[in-house]
C-alpha cells in the first residue's frame, strides 16, 4: 500500500490565499495612485495605548506576550477603569509601571476622558509675591478645596511683568510676551505653554512683535493678541496678531483703530471687546470681529463703568459690581445697560487682600477668585433671589465689612500675593 495515499490531508491548507498573478498586480498598481494604495492610521506610536514598541530584553513580557495593563483584563477594559480614577491620583498612576506611565503621557488617555465627560477642571492662578516680586503659580482642585503650589514657572517668567495668559484646547496654558528681565525697558516675543496632560512646559513659536501690557483672548481655538507697548520708549501698539495651533504659527490681523494699552477684555457675542488707555491717557474701547477682520470703536452702554473682571456664561456677560466681587452684575443687551443680578450681602471690605482678581466659569458656576486665594462660586442661572454662594477655597466670609475696613485702615489688609492671571484647565 502506498504510504503517500494513506497520509491524512492537512486540516488547514498552508498555501497563501493572497497569491495572484504578477501581471494583474502591476496592472492594478498603474490604475491606483501610489499614495492611496495603502492607508495607514495617523497615530504616533508614542501615544498608542495598546501596542507600544517593546525594546529588546524587556522584562515586562513573558513568552513573547506583552503584560496587560491590569492582570486578568483586556487592555480596553483596563483603560475603561483607569480613566475613571480621579485626576488628583494620576501622579500615583504614573509611578506604578512603565506601561501606565506611557499611557498617561499620551493624548489618547485624556482625550478619552474628555470625550466621555470625565475630564476634571482645575483652577490655575499665576500670582506675584508682594515681598520679592517673584512669579509663581498654584492649582486648586475644587473637589478638595485646597490650593497646592506647583513647580516654578519657566525662568524667563519668574520675574517678568506685563505678560499675557490664555488657554487653548482646554488643557494648554500659554504665557507670552511681557517685560524682558534680561533687557531693562524691553519687551519679549517669547511664548511657552504648559500641558495639563503631560504636566510639563514646552516652547511655542514667538510672537511677530515684541509687546507687554497687551490684551489676549481665545476665539475659535485661536489665540489673539493686540495693543500694548513695545518697550524701550516705542510707545503704544496698534498691531494685532493671531496664533493658530493647527498651523503652529503666528500671522497679523487688522490693526486696531487706535493704539491702546488694554485694562480689561472679554469675548461676547462672537466679538472681542477691549477697554484701556489710549496714547493721550484717554479711555478707549474697541471691538474686533474675526469674521470681518476689522476693529470698531464701541461707545454703547456696555463700556460705561466696565472696569472690573468679567466672564461670559451661557452667552451672557457678567462682571464684578464691587471690589470684593460679592455682588455681580450682568449686561442686558436689550436695555443696553448693566443690572445687578447676584448679591451675597456679605462683603469682605475694600482691602487689597479681599479684592476680586478674576472671575472664571467652573461647572456652570461663576467663581470669584480673590488675592487672598479665597474662591466663592454661585449659580447665576438659579434666578434672582435663589442664588446660593458656596466657598470653594478659603474661609467663608471670615471678616465682616467693618472688620475688613478697620484692618485696611490699620495697614493689615495688604495682600501677600497679587493674582495676575487665573485660568481653568481640564484633564
UniProtKB/TrEMBL annotation:
User: InterPro entries recorded for this chain?
Assistant: F-box-like_dom_sf, F-box_dom, Kelch-typ_b-propeller, Kelch_1
Question: What top-level branch of life does the organism fall under?
Answer: Eukaryota
User: Where is the segment annotated Disordered?
Assistant: 46-65
List the keywords (alphabetical). Answer: Kelch repeat, Repeat
F-box domain segment(s): 73-113
Protein's UniProt name: F-box domain-containing protein
Amino acid at each position: 500500500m502506498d504510504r503517500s495515499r494513506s497520509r491524512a490531508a492537512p486540516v488547514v491548507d498552508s498555501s497563501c490565499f493572497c497569491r495572484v498573478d504578477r501581471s494583474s498586480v502591476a496592472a492594478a498598481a498603474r490604475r491606483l495612485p501610489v499614495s492611496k494604495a495603502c492607508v495607514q492610521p495617523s497615530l504616533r506610536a508614542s501615544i498608542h495605548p495598546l501596542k507600544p514598541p517593546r525594546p529588546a530584553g524587556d522584562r515586562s513580557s513573558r513568552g513573547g506576550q506583552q503584560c496587560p495593563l491590569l492582570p486578568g483584563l483586556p487592555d480596553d477594559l483596563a483603560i475603561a477603569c483607569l480613566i475613571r480614577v480621579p485626576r488628583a491620583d494620576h501622579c500615583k498612576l504614573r509611578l506604578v509601571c512603565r506601561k501606565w506611565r506611557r499611557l498617561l503621557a499620551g493624548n489618547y488617555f485624556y482625550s478619552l476622558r474628555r470625550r466621555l465627560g470625565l475630564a476634571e477642571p482645575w483652577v490655575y492662578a499665576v500670582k506675584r509675591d508682594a515681598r520679592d516680586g517673584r512669579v509663581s503659580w498654584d492649582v486648586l482642585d475644587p473637589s478638595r478645596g485646597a490650593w497646592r503650589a506647583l513647580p516654578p514657572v519657566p525662568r524667563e517668567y519668574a520675574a517678568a511683568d506685563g505678560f499675557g495668559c490664555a488657554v487653548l484646547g482646554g488643557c494648554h496654558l500659554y504665557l507670552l510676551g511681557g517685560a524682558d528681565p534680561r533687557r531693562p525697558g524691553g519687551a519679549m516675543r517669547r511664548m511657552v505653554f504648559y500641558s495639563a496632560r503631560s504636566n510639563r512646559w514646552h516652547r511655542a513659536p514667538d510672537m511677530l512683535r515684541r509687546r507687554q501690557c497687551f490684551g489676549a483672548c481665545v476665539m475659535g481655538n485661536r489665540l489673539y493678541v493686540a495693543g500694548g507697548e513695545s518697550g524701550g520708549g516705542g510707545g503704544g501698539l496698534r498691531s494685532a496678531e493671531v496664533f493658530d495651533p493647527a498651523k503652529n504659527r503666528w500671522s497679523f490681523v487688522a490693526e486696531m483703530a487706535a493704539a491702546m494699552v488694554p485694562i480689561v477684555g472679554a469675548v461676547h457675542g462672537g466679538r472681542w471687546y477691549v477697554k484701556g488707555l489710549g496714547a493721550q491717557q484717554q479711555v478707549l474701547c474697541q471691538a474686533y470681529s474675526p469674521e470681518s477682520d476689522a476693529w470698531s470703536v464701541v461707545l454703547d452702554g456696555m463700556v460705561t463703568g466696565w472696569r472690573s473682571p468679567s466672564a461670559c456664561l451661557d452667552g451672557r456677560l457678567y462682571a464684578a459690581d464691587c471690589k470684593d466681587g460679592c455682588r455681580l452684575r450682568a449686561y442686558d443687551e436689550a436695555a443696553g445697560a448693566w443690572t445687578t443680578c447676584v448679591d451675597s450681602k456679605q462683603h469682605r471690605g475694600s482691602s487689597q487682600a479681599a479684592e476680586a482678581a478674576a472671575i472664571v466659569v467652573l461647572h456652570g458656576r461663576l467663581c470669584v477668585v480673590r488675592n487672598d486665594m479665597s474662591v466663592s462660586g454661585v449659580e447665576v442661572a438659579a434666578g434672582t433671589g435663589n442664588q446660593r454662594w458656596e466657598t470653594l477655597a478659603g474661609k467663608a466670609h471670615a471678616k465682616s465689612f467693618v472688620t475688613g475696613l478697620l484692618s485696611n485702615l490699620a495697614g493689615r489688609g495688604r495682600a501677600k500675593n497679587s493674582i495676575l492671571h487665573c485660568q481653568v484647565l481640564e484633564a
